[in-house]
Protein backbone atom coordinates (compact mmCIF):
# COMPACT_ATOMS: atom_id res chain seq x y z
CA UNK A 1 0.00 0.00 0.00
CA UNK A 2 1.23 3.47 -0.90
CA UNK A 3 0.85 6.17 1.76
CA UNK A 4 0.14 9.76 0.75
CA UNK A 5 2.49 12.44 2.01
CA UNK A 6 -0.34 14.06 3.97
CA UNK A 7 -2.86 11.87 5.79
CA UNK A 8 -5.23 13.60 8.21
CA UNK A 9 -6.04 11.78 11.44
CA UNK A 10 -9.44 12.74 12.80
CA UNK A 11 -10.42 12.13 16.41
CA UNK A 12 -13.96 10.89 16.80
CA UNK A 13 -16.31 10.61 19.76
CA UNK A 14 -17.83 7.25 18.75
CA UNK A 15 -15.57 5.02 16.67
CA UNK A 16 -18.32 2.66 15.50
CA UNK A 17 -20.59 5.50 14.38
CA UNK A 18 -17.77 7.24 12.50
CA UNK A 19 -16.59 4.01 10.90
CA UNK A 20 -20.13 3.30 9.64
CA UNK A 21 -20.43 6.86 8.29
CA UNK A 22 -17.12 6.71 6.41
CA UNK A 23 -17.57 3.19 5.04
CA UNK A 24 -21.32 2.79 4.53
CA UNK A 25 -22.35 6.38 3.69
CA UNK A 26 -19.31 7.98 2.02
CA UNK A 27 -17.71 4.91 0.50
CA UNK A 28 -14.29 4.69 2.12
CA UNK A 29 -12.65 1.26 2.48
CA UNK A 30 -10.83 0.13 5.61
CA UNK A 31 -7.21 -0.54 4.62
CA UNK A 32 -6.32 -1.64 8.14
CA UNK A 33 -7.70 -1.22 11.62
CA UNK A 34 -6.73 -1.60 15.23
CA UNK A 35 -10.23 -2.05 16.63
CA UNK A 36 -8.98 -2.55 20.19
CA UNK A 37 -7.43 0.91 19.93
CA UNK A 38 -10.51 2.25 18.10
CA UNK A 39 -8.44 3.21 15.03
CA UNK A 40 -8.91 2.73 11.29
CA UNK A 41 -6.93 3.73 8.21
CA UNK A 42 -9.38 4.51 5.39
CA UNK A 43 -9.08 5.09 1.65
CA UNK A 44 -11.38 6.14 -1.17
CA UNK A 45 -10.10 6.60 -4.73
CA UNK A 46 -6.60 7.43 -3.44
CA UNK A 47 -7.77 9.81 -0.70
CA UNK A 48 -6.54 8.59 2.67
CA UNK A 49 -7.49 9.46 6.23
CA UNK A 50 -7.39 7.95 9.67
CA UNK A 51 -10.07 8.00 12.35
CA UNK A 52 -9.47 7.32 16.01
CA UNK A 53 -11.46 7.54 19.20
CA UNK A 54 -8.95 8.68 21.82
CA UNK A 55 -8.40 6.04 24.48
CA UNK A 56 -4.87 6.55 25.82
CA UNK A 57 -4.31 10.02 27.34
CA UNK A 58 -0.54 9.60 26.89
CA UNK A 59 -1.06 9.08 23.13
CA UNK A 60 -3.77 11.70 22.54
CA UNK A 61 -2.28 14.82 20.99
CA UNK A 62 -4.50 17.83 21.51
CA UNK A 63 -3.77 21.53 21.41
CA UNK A 64 -7.01 22.32 23.27
CA UNK A 65 -10.22 20.87 24.63
CA UNK A 66 -11.90 18.27 22.43
CA UNK A 67 -15.48 19.54 22.25
CA UNK A 68 -18.12 19.05 19.56
CA UNK A 69 -17.96 19.92 16.73
CA UNK A 70 -14.40 18.60 16.53
CA UNK A 71 -13.85 19.90 13.02
CA UNK A 72 -14.20 23.65 13.65
CA UNK A 73 -12.40 25.41 10.84
CA UNK A 74 -11.36 22.23 9.05
CA UNK A 75 -12.55 21.53 5.50
CA UNK A 76 -11.15 18.47 3.74
CA UNK A 77 -11.39 18.51 -0.06
CA UNK A 78 -11.68 15.01 -1.52
CA UNK A 79 -11.73 14.34 -5.27
CA UNK A 80 -14.08 11.60 -6.49
CA UNK A 81 -14.86 10.22 -9.93
CA UNK A 82 -18.64 10.76 -9.72
CA UNK A 83 -19.64 13.50 -7.30
CA UNK A 84 -23.28 13.49 -8.42
CA UNK A 85 -23.70 9.79 -7.60
CA UNK A 86 -22.05 10.28 -4.20
CA UNK A 87 -24.27 13.30 -3.47
CA UNK A 88 -27.36 11.28 -4.45
CA UNK A 89 -26.35 8.40 -2.19
CA UNK A 90 -25.59 10.58 0.82
CA UNK A 91 -28.83 12.54 0.35
CA UNK A 92 -30.81 9.28 0.17
CA UNK A 93 -29.25 8.12 3.45
CA UNK A 94 -30.85 11.04 5.27
CA UNK A 95 -27.53 12.66 6.20
CA UNK A 96 -27.96 16.44 5.87
CA UNK A 97 -25.95 18.16 3.15
CA UNK A 98 -24.03 21.14 4.58
CA UNK A 99 -23.48 22.90 1.21
CA UNK A 100 -25.62 21.74 -1.73
CA UNK A 101 -24.19 20.41 -4.97
CA UNK A 102 -22.82 23.31 -7.01
CA UNK A 103 -20.48 24.18 -9.84
CA UNK A 104 -17.86 26.60 -8.53
CA UNK A 105 -15.08 28.32 -10.46
CA UNK A 106 -12.06 29.48 -8.46
CA UNK A 107 -9.64 32.12 -9.72
CA UNK A 108 -5.98 31.24 -10.19
CA UNK A 109 -4.02 33.99 -11.90
CA UNK A 110 -5.46 34.20 -15.46
CA UNK A 111 -7.45 30.95 -15.22
CA UNK A 112 -10.52 29.60 -13.53
CA UNK A 113 -10.43 26.14 -11.97
CA UNK A 114 -13.78 24.36 -11.99
CA UNK A 115 -15.22 22.07 -9.34
CA UNK A 116 -18.58 20.37 -9.06
CA UNK A 117 -18.82 20.00 -5.31
CA UNK A 118 -20.86 19.64 -2.16
CA UNK A 119 -20.06 19.54 1.55
CA UNK A 120 -21.28 17.10 4.19
CA UNK A 121 -20.42 17.00 7.89
CA UNK A 122 -19.22 13.80 9.50
CA UNK A 123 -20.69 12.79 12.89
CA UNK A 124 -18.12 14.89 14.76
CA UNK A 125 -18.45 18.02 12.65
CA UNK A 126 -15.53 17.64 10.22
CA UNK A 127 -16.47 19.16 6.86
CA UNK A 128 -15.91 16.92 3.84
CA UNK A 129 -15.97 18.75 0.51
CA UNK A 130 -16.33 16.15 -2.21
CA UNK A 131 -15.59 17.41 -5.71
CA UNK A 132 -15.21 16.44 -9.31
CA UNK A 133 -12.81 18.41 -11.50
CA UNK A 134 -14.52 20.45 -14.22
CA UNK A 135 -11.25 21.54 -15.82
CA UNK A 136 -9.95 25.03 -16.43
CA UNK A 137 -11.01 27.99 -18.48
CA UNK A 138 -9.65 31.42 -19.22
CA UNK A 139 -10.63 34.12 -16.74
CA UNK A 140 -12.58 37.06 -18.16
CA UNK A 141 -10.64 40.26 -18.75
Outline the secondary-structure elements.
Layout lengths: L8 E3 L3 H11 L3 E6 L4 E6 L2 E6 L22 E5 L3 H10 L4 E12 L2 E11 L5 E12 L3
Parallel strand pairs: 1-4, 5-8
Antiparallel strand pairs: 2-3, 3-4, 6-7, 7-8
Describe it.
The chain is mainly beta and 141 residues long. 15% of the residues lie in helices and 43% in strands. It is built from two helices and eight strands, in the order βαββββαβββ. Strands 1-4-3-2 form a four-stranded mixed beta sheet, with helices on one face. Strand 3 and strand 4 form a beta hairpin. The longest helix has 11 residues, at 15-25. It is globular and about 55 Å long. It starts with 8 loop residues before the first strand and ends with a strand. The mean pLDDT is 93.
Structural descriptors:
four-stranded mixed sheet; 15% helix; 43% strand; mainly beta; globular
Low-confidence stretches: none
* Radius of gyration using CA atoms only: 17 Å
Average of the residue pLDDT scores = 93
Gap from first CA to last CA = 46 Å
Task: Tell me what portion of residues adopts beta-strand conformation.
Answer: 35-45%
Q: Biggest sheet: strands side by side, in what order?
A: 1-4-3-2
Biggest sheet layout:
4 strands, mixed
- The shape, in one word, is globular
- H and E order: EHEEEEHEEE
* SS content category: mainly beta
With helices defined by DSSP (H or I, 4 residues minimum), what is the helix count? 2
- DSSP summary, beta strand count: 8
Helix content: 10-25%
Amino acid sequence: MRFNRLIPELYCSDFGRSLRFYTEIVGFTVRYARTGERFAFLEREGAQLMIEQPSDPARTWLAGDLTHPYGRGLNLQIEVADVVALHTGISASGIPIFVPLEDKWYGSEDRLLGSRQFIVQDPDGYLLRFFQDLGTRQAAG
